[in-house]
Amino acid sequence: MPVLLVTRSSALHDAVVPLCAAAGVGAQVCDEPALVLTAWTDADLVLVGADLAGEVADLAPLRRLGVHVVGLPPGDAAFRSAVALGAMSVIDLAESTDWLVGALTDVGEPASPGRIVGVVGGAGGAGTTTLACALAQWHAPRGPTLLVDADPLGPGLDRLLGMEDVAGVRWEGLVETSGRLGARALRESVPRDDHLGVLTWSGLRRRLDLPTARRILPVAVRGHDLVVLDLARQSGSTLAELADRCDELLVVTPATVPGVAATARLVAELGLDGRAGLVVRPGGLSDADAHRLTGLPVVAAVADQRGLAASVDRGLGPLTPRGPLARAARDLLSEAA
Predict the structure, then answer these.
(1) What is the mean pLDDT of the chain?
(2) Which pLDDT band, with edges at 50, 70 and 90, does 112 fall under?
(3) Which uninterrupted H or E stretch holds 337?
(4) What pLDDT, on a 0 to 100 scale, did the predictor assign at position 22?
(5) What are the residues whose beta carbons fall under 8 Å from the beta carbon of 71, sequence distance 6 or more?
(6) DSSP 277
(7) Which of the residues 37, 100, 122, 283 has the least number of beta carbons within 10 Å of its own beta carbon?
(8) What does the DSSP 8-state code read for residue 258?
(9) CATH topology agreement for domains 3-105 and 115-336
(10) What are phi and psi for residue 41, nearest 5 degrees?
(11) Which domain of life does the protein's organism represent (predicted)?
């Protein structure tokens, strides 16, 4: 029973219940405060009508998240009752239908969002996209995962994973949408293989629309345990903003003099802080050299993986059960958690 509506008001009933039905969300309407306590803690969302808010407050139900006092309008007394209930807000549904629609779209989603891990190449050809795919593939059996292609000039993450023919919305479709998108709707609409979803482009001409990314990323992280961003090194201010939205940022660099030098310039340009770590690929420099020149801690060293190109060409993605990418993904995500 996702939504509990406590009211005797037919107007409130008619304002809430049809929207629940339209959102595909079950609702229980209770007009007797004495019966509220049996369902109080089970509902994902509790809407207490202003007409009964005082009586419900007198019962002193357990404090919990997701309680709102609603009315048409609620009236001044509703605010005192809301304080007694520990309600999160007092809502005038006559002016806040969009708020209710938005609240219903997220019913059933976890209260605590997942996390965003960004992957960016310190130098060209560092293997950023390969690592991003491996992280997402490793985590997908453990929880809902979204792999986001933020590199318009990349190969297309769906192609690396053999999902280019899987139906679902791409970036172009999201640019054309308006209104509030729910976490569940996004999770179910992108191309998906079991627990792994991919958000990428459908055509050859690509451009990352930053306002759309700003709108989509908070929704994505509410609906997934892990969101992996494959970031484009060349995107300037766009890269800086997307990197700032990440909980952890992995900078991939080959352990070569040109590679580490380019990585150091990127690190200085972005002003990276303690959320960033260095993933080192094979080369002649040591981990200590890479740390000294970039200022970032080395969080993983990933060796070359045999059969990688063949695995990707077959649409299986880069991850193999016991390869170096699998070990790196396990260690990186465990440490980040």
Answers:
(1) 91
(2) low
(3) none
(4) 86
(5) 12, 49, 50, 51, 78, 90, 91, 92, 93
(6) E
(7) 37
(8) H
(9) yes
(10) -85, -10
(11) Bacteria
Task: Answer for the pair 120, 154: CB distance below 8 angstroms, yes or no.
Answer: no
| 235 has pLDDT over 70 | no
DSSP sequence for 140-194: GGGS-EEEEEE-TTS--HHHHTT-TTS----HHHHHT--SPPPHHHHHHHS-EET
- Residue that the structure tokens 């040109």 belong to: 258
pLDDT at 111 over 70: no
Greater confidence (274 vs 17) lies with 17
The three-class DSSP label of residue 48 is strand
Tell me: the pLDDT tens digits for 165-179?
999 999 999 987 766
Q: Are 132 and 119 in contact (CB under 8 A)?
A: yes
pLDDT (0 to 100) of residue 178 = 67
Gap between the Cα atoms of 143 and 201, Å rounded:
24
| Architecture label for domain 115-336 | 3-Layer(aba) Sandwich (3.40)
| Predicted confidence (pLDDT) at residue 217 exceeds the cutoff of 60 | yes
At the top level of CATH, which class does the domain 3-105 belong to?
alpha beta
How far apart CA 38 and CA 46 sit, in angstroms, is: 13
Beta-carbon neighbour count of residue 195 at 10 Å?
18
